[in-house]
Design brief:
mainly alpha; two-stranded antiparallel ribbon; binds NADPH dihydro-nicotinamide-adenine-dinucleotide phosphate
């Protein structure tokens, strides 16, 4: 037996942590959905009641989901104004991706607008959130299982750096016969822990021809679904109270800006950790298809059942906070993307850099000289602005801010580990020049 390669540390507490998260994440999502519509809306208390299967399971909700996924897949496959290349893969190849997410958003809006004019009852959507979330959870489990099975026949070069607890280096050789005559020797990879690998995702870029499942799910059905749910909540509020509240307008406007921005700058997703490092397994599938639309719309859900009075001065202050957050978030993300695409672009050519042994450079001035993750700082400031319209009477609408802070602190630590592995001493030098991670002088 050849010796086994060094094992990278397992993330999220290994198989046990992965199993716990697979229960905890859907349970939290259902808890939030139930609590948002309850009178006391207590984030930390028990759920107001446990719904029976008849309240969760609805073939109509499942059909709606398939129709939604089908529509988004059809829009994905429409001709795109640009086809972008992804980062270089292990086998030195690069995949191609259509850049037509914003077009998909606009076409979806047009189609829904026409549908509403023709009598589509969009304002009935809020009543279906529980069965829709249940259908999304089922789809996430089944889809992740299919992806896991597909990964078993994928070549080793297609596997993600994380999510393959068994693939840490050849542990021996396997002999395979071709037609029963000649024997071939293949490196043998230890099988890994199926629970952990199912959760993290084994294959980096599972796709069928041009339809890249991870890239497709990352920004389209879930993100566009999120703003659609928000809009349906706004319409239902208008029906209930005569017109949508200012708080509801703000939450809808801010989150539409966020989703529109993500789709407008769709190409930027190709350099994010989700696309370049993480496999496509339950963590991302559930996150993209269920967690994002049903928990990110929590503020709008809360506002429908707990209207809040919001004066113009407070609304203006909240808009200013969102604008500051967006300015930092967009500035930092665009600066890094411009630099990664072309370091001699005049917009970034004057920035200070550190060279690394990989040939890539790290920015040490501009946004990336302020803290090591200025984009996270902007994102967190926006998260605060999305919660503030919901007032200070309940903790529930601040769930997103709390969860997102935990997610980004953890994500930042994961990214640091990966960057230290990639860039070694150069990364340490960067950390010395830019000592704060997310918030200047604090963290
Ligand atoms: P980032 O866009 O922050 O990318 C991190 C990578 O950037 C590093 O791995 C490194 O990769 C590169 N990098 C780090 N420092 C430097 C530097 N000084 N100079 C040049 N390159 C550097 O990763 P994320 O995917 O975490 O975030 C993308 C955006 O998505 C963020 O704005 C984040 O807030 C947002 N996000 C939102 C979520 C949500 O649910 N709303 C969830 C997760 C993220 P390399 O060197 O290989 O290029």
């Amino acid at each position: 037996m050849a010796s086994q390669g060094p094992r990278a540390p397992l993330e999220f507490g290994g198989p046990l942590g992965a199993a716990a998260l697979m229960l905890l994440l859907p349970a939290t999502m259902f808890h939030l959905l139930l609590v948002a519509r309850s009178g006391p809306a207590r984030l930390l208390g028990p759920p107001p009641y446990l719904p029976g299967l008849e309240e969760l399971w609805s073939p109509r909700a499942l059909l709606l989901w398939f129709a939604w996924l089908g529509l988004q897949a059809a829009l994905y496959l429409l001709p795109a104004h640009k086809v972008a290349e992804g980062q270089e893969l292990k086998d030195k190849s690069r995949l191609q991706y259509p850049i037509n997410g914003f077009q998909a958003l606009v076409l979806t809006a047009l189609l829904l607008g026409l549908g509403v004019l023709a009598g589509l009852p969009l304002d009935a959507l809020p009543e279906m959130l529980l069965p829709l979330a249940f259908a999304a959870t089922l789809i996430a489990f089944i889809f992740s299982l299919l992806l896991y099975l597909k990964s078993q026949v994928a070549p080793a070069s297609a596997l993600a750096p994380g999510g393959n607890s068994g693939e840490r280096g050849p542990s021996g050789v396997r002999m395979e016969a071709d037609g029963g005559t000649r024997l071939h020797f293949h490196p043998l990879y230890s099988p890994g822990n199926p629970i952990y690998d199912f959760f993290m995702g084994r294959e980096l870029n599972p796709r069928i021809h041009f339809l890249d499942f991870k890239y497709f799910c990352e920004l389209r059905p879930g993100l566009i679904g999120w703003v659609l749910i928000n809009l349906a909540l706004l319409m239902q509020e208008a029906e209930l109270r005569g017109s949508p509240s200012l708080a509801m307008w703000l939450v809808n406007g801010f989150q539409l800006l966020y989703v529109g921005d993500a789709l407008w700058y769709e190409e930027a997703v190709l350099t994010t950790m989700d696309i370049t490092h993480d496999g496509f397994g339950f963590m991302l599938v559930f996150g993209d298809l269920a967690w994002v639309p049903f928990t990110y719309s929590l503020q709008a859900q809360f506002l429908l059942h707990h209207p809040q009075a919001l004066g113009l001065p407070m609304a203006s202050a909240i808009c200013l906070i969102n604008a500051v957050g967006y300015y930092i978030f967009r500035g930092a993300n665009s600066q890094k993307n411009t630099f990664r695409k072309n370091p001699s672009d005049p917009r970034v050519a004057d920035l200070k850099t550190i060279s690394t042994a990989t040939g890539r450079q790290l920015l040490v001035s501009g946004w990336w000289g302020m803290v090591r993750h200025p984009n996270y700082l902007g994102d967190l400031i926006m998260a605060l602005a999305w919660s503030l319209p919901c007032g200070a009477s309940h903790l529930l609408p601040y769930f997103y801010l709390l969860y997102f802070t935990a997610l980004l602190v953890h994500r930042e630590a994961r990214d640091e580990r990966q960057c230290l592995q990639k860039y070694g001493l150069a990364w340490r030098e960067y950390c010395q020049c830019v000592p704060y991670r997310i918030v200047p002088y604090i963290y």
